[in-house]
Amino acid sequence: MTKTLRTVKNGDKEKLKAIRFVQDSIPLEEFSEDGIFLIQSGKKYHNKYSAVYQLKDISYLSLSDEMQRQIFLAWSAVLNVLDPGATSKISVIKHKIGTATLEKFKTHNDNPQYQELQKEYNKIIVQKALQGNGMIQEVYLTVSVNKKDRDAARAFFLRTTSTLQTQLLKLGSGCTQLTGKERLELLHDIYCGDKENEAEFDLKQALKTGSSAKNYIAPESMEFETDYFKMGSMYGRALVMHSYPTYLKDSTVSDICEINRRLIWSMDIIPVPTDEAVNEAEKRATSVEANISKWFQKQYNNKNYAMEPPYDLKQQREQAQEYLTDLTERDQHLMYAVITLVHFADSKQQLDDDTDSIMATARTARCKFNVLRWQQLDGLNTALPLGVRRVEDIMTLTTEGVAGFMPFKSMEMQEENGFCYGQNQISKNLIMIDPKSKQSDNCVVLGIPGSGKSMFMKWVILNKILATANDQHEIIIIDPEREYAPLVKALGGSVVYFSTNSKTHINAMDVSSGYNASDNPITTKAEFMLSLCEHLMYPSVLGPKQKSLIDRCTELVLRDYVKNGCTGTAPTLMDFYEAMKQQPEQEAKDIALSIEIYAKGSLSTFAKQTNIDISNRIICFDIHELGDSLMSIGMLVLFDHIQNRMIQNRAKGTTTSIINDEFYLMFQRQYTSEFFYKMWKRGRKYGADYCGITQNVEDLLRSPDGRSIVSTSELIIMLNQAPIDRDQLADLLDISENQQEYITNAKPGSGLLKAGGVMIPFENDIPRDSKIYQLLTTKPGEAIYDSGE
């Protein structure tokens, strides 16, 4: 036994005391707001304090073999920085989704117009959340240390937090230290079985009055039998791992915890200082060599001159040498470990069946669990995220051996105030994302025809409308395929139809009174006019002379209007055309002739005064009937119009979401691409977010601006992809081969979601018998048809 293990065992010795009340079974002496709890007081070994960290899960199981190897090494590095003067406990805790959590997933909009859809939406959300028995799996790390007093413990945990955060970031994870209130809520959830409708515990008040937190977290009753226990109406059983194989599958922990029951899998880790571990290894190697020498001497005395020792001694020598090499050359640390598992059930029969199932799963990984007989309370307290250890089935492992029990499974994304982006394909948990929590809140949706792009986007639109108030969020849609009108109308929104002969017009020369207030509005408008003229004059290319003329005429037309505060009658494209005609240069005559059809001819839809005044929070611009000659021009003019509205909304504190289907069209011309790219980047400045949707991924990535938008977007939705598009995206976004499977022959509405640096396989099935499905689907024969004006 090493000095470290002897010290830890002495420090873990429990004071014998009579258990008269349920609270006496809980190893907790003092609690505090900062989450540092006193779990055992003493004199010789000071006082034992503990803190709990929630670890951010990572999508380990969906990564490539190489990425898994890198994560394994990074996780090993985390284990190596665990302080040898402390003990650590890694816990995988699986619990049910409570009613309070479900309420957070629901929307609560008071608008009477939305109530029918909201009721159905919330029903779908609850069904999704409870899929797979509504279980949530979380990973925690409990660190406990013996210190003289709370100040010394607080200083220790401050250093520990910093070290853990630094190391966990390297493997794409992270950690958050639980506050006192959060720790008590976690314990209450375990002890009381997700009970709802109980009075919320007031930690500050309890500290003032001196009342015990145990009264809040304790169950109604606790009964411990030989091989199981009962907490309130729940049955539970504590198991301990007795043996494990030399080579362990890294999915072992996930496989064992796959059962749809509440459970706690915990691994207590006692790190040993390197010098002490090396000394122990050298003693072991010396002992093996001594045994071999004795064997040779015995053979010599018997006149048996064999040259090789027996197989078992050779194996011991190899293992001892390999063990010493691990410690001295391969950065392996010696660690003692105890693995316990506590699972819960609603009946004794269910408990017995679950125990058999867990043990059978463990046997497939060549691991053996034993039921802790007459030690059920000790097993429970050891498994709990408190920081005590009451079970002595200690295993000796190296860093790699501990890391082999990989606790990570799949990355979850359930951000506060998030919108629902479907379900995690692996865990079936809801994906809730708040775009504003990202560095960029813009979004890109990519997929082949029929992959479910517009249906997915309409689901997000519905969520945003139901989850926010009228003055909080506006949504503007550019719809070239006439797919969004049924949903927009059902939500009370306005659909504006454009065509070459429609009576609806937007003036391409409009300037808002607050137009890009930080810049010169004429300069910004000139940038737009360059983009517009580039389209109007295509296939002619704008040279330096043409650019100067466009800039000159833009200023001539807008100068007085802007000077008067953008009041009165705004200039139109017709005024711009007339100004261009009056310029002496021949190039001006050429420009005027090129844009004449758009200024006063048959394609003059955007050369007339704006005659729409929409105050609705949901606006859909239907450009389906503009035709090929005006489609991209229409998008460009609409984006300029939208920019004006964005500025107005910013002044009101209203978020503007802009959805642009087939936005790859914006990257087919140089100046248009530059104009759109600037708008995309400056959206956040105006409290706006853009979502670009396209099936033409190859065309989009061919443009440097389009490629930059995809590579820098924090939120990317990838549905089923064509092989060439999939390869390009994999190269651009570093998507592993395993992850590419989720965008290969994927069913409609499912794929891969990139949120920041995280990749999550997702799905988003909507019940076909719901009204929401009818409003969202574009499938022929099921979609609601909109005939236009």
DSSP strand content: 15-25%
- N-to-C terminal Cα separation, in Å? 85 Å
Helix content: 40-55%
What is the β-strand count? 23
Radius of gyration over C-alpha positions, nearest whole angstrom: 33 Å
Largest sheet: 12 strands, antiparallel
Structural class: alpha+beta
Number of DSSP helices? 27
Point out poorly predicted stretches.
Answer: none
Coarse morphology: elongated
The whole-number mean of residue pLDDT values reads 89
How does this model look, in words?
- The protein has 789 residues and is of the alpha+beta class.
- Among the domains are: 3-11 and 19-97 and 134-272 and 333-403, no CATH class; 280-318; 515-609.
- The chain is built from 27 helices and 23 strands.
- The strands form two sheets. Strands 1, 2, 3, 4, 5, 6, 7, 8, 9, 10, 11 and 12 form a twelve-stranded antiparallel β-sheet that branches.
- Helix 18 (544-563) crosses helix 19.
- The radius of gyration is 33 Å and the shape is elongated.
- The protein starts with a helix and ends in a 13-residue tail after the last helix.
- The model has no long low-confidence stretch (mean pLDDT 89).
